[in-house]
Task: structure prediction
Amino acid sequence: MTGRGARISLAVCSALVIAFLWIPLVVIALYAFNGSNIQGWPIASWTLHWFGVTWHNPDVRGALELSVKVGAITTAVALVLGTMAAAAVARFRFFGREAVSFLLVLPLALPGIITGMALNSFFVYAGIAVSTWTIVIGHATFCVVVVYNNVVARLRRSSASLVEASQDLGADGWQTFRFVLWPVLSTALVAGGLLAFALSFDEVIVTTFTAGLQQTLPIFILDNIRQGQQLPVINVVAFFVIVVTVIPVALAQRVMRDTGIIRRGAAQVTEAVEAAEIPAV
Amino acid sequence: MAADAGAFEAGPPVRRARLRVSGFLWRRPWLKAVTLLTPPVGAFLVVYVGSLAVLFVSSLWTTNSFTSEIEHTWTLANYREIFSTANPYLHVAVRTLVIAAAVTVTDAILAFPLAFFMARLAGTRTRALLFVLVLLPLWSSYLVRIYAWQTLLAHDGAINWALNGLGLPDQNVAYTNTAMWIVFTYVWLPFMVLPIYAALERIPDSYLEASEDLGARSFRTFRSVILPLALPGVVAGSIFTFALTLGDYITPLLVGGPSSQMIGNYVYDNFATNVPFAAAFTLIPMLVMGAYLLIARRLGAFEAL
Result:
């Protein structure tokens, strides 16, 4: 139905939009190799010097360590809580079932400043001092739903009679989990876990309200960009962050194409959909 | 029943105990559901809903202006302050909404041709490639993407270099509302492409053939068939672009100018010194998003996905 002219102009528009998405990323990645202290363009001289400097920078190391630690704990919490909620919602019918989905999606549907501000006033009110754990709590609120969504989708696609069959054949709860449920759920859990880690690793708005003076990697980047300090180091960190996110996503896209894992946007659409569907029920 | 269970209760005691627990839970599904639900729902009710409740309650408190201590006296003073026309806050709220709307419209305009090309014209391989090219920026760090634009827009940055190369004068966009608009549009664009793509992909070819058979030309088919069916996707995408812009304070901080303050900036600036006021100000984005989601549901954004 589309004419030749329309086809070509749509292809050109698409190419321009893709260029718009990618040129800034390519440019900032190139700055990591900038030989000069000044952030000018075009880059006059090239060096690997800043990679060494960044690697030995104690602030970068501390921030990276904290981010990995928070990401790991958050992912573990999200996996446990998200899977439990998913198992209950997918396998049982009970009063308020939709309310559970709504509750879990709320932190993702509401703007970050609301979640951050709410948790902050809660901590102030309850007299809880900021620590690694307050950051974890902040991150866990919006990471649980990611695991939950992946697992619920997988459970809905698999048959509940598998579990019954396993029990009829004499398996106990652990065996049923290990040999029947785990093979069904493993990729959903891996995907949900990766996504939860990525969200936590990148989060900045909620973190600024729950971290106090602690620096996660995004907070370290933010503080330095704001003050225009250590920009060569920030360039390397930016390069690292781009590569670290791009490689696993590209790999995962190849490996787990059929599971719909990588469709982060789509997953979030589904979440928002579920969030907003609830009041109608 | 008891006899059947006995037949399986062979083997070491640990296994027997496990079987007994499994059987016990199997006969009481409600107990299993309660066990599974209590930790996640309990945690969310206490921490998250509890926090929202504290947020609302503290918006009705006040702060001692000398000590910055929260005083638990009930007052609507924070709300009066926000809605008073003598203060800049309403103006800030309006600016935030206008920018969120502008970003949403721009994203829809940019995303539609790309989503259309991906969903209806590209071959399988091109489509997969484009999909990755849209997803990767979505996954890469939000802060790094803002920082990239800060660098691009700088006086001696790549954009001015390119403009000068073409014989054009410098842009003076850095640290203005325009810069903020560009950067917001950039960072949220993938969130708009994906739902529109999903909506367009779902339109059956037969609809388009039917439209042609009935004598519609390309433009008419587009306007009367494709656009109405794609609209829920656009609305779904707009939920993200709108909500994310509404609650952001980092982009105005990093690429905005002196008159680019948004709701988020005021909340962030006050959260350490004046919790009650910051809490009251978060109520505006919350109400706006509530209304937006209700309208979006009317437009079918949720059934479409």
In short: The CA atoms of residues 35 and 47 of chain A lie 5 Å apart.
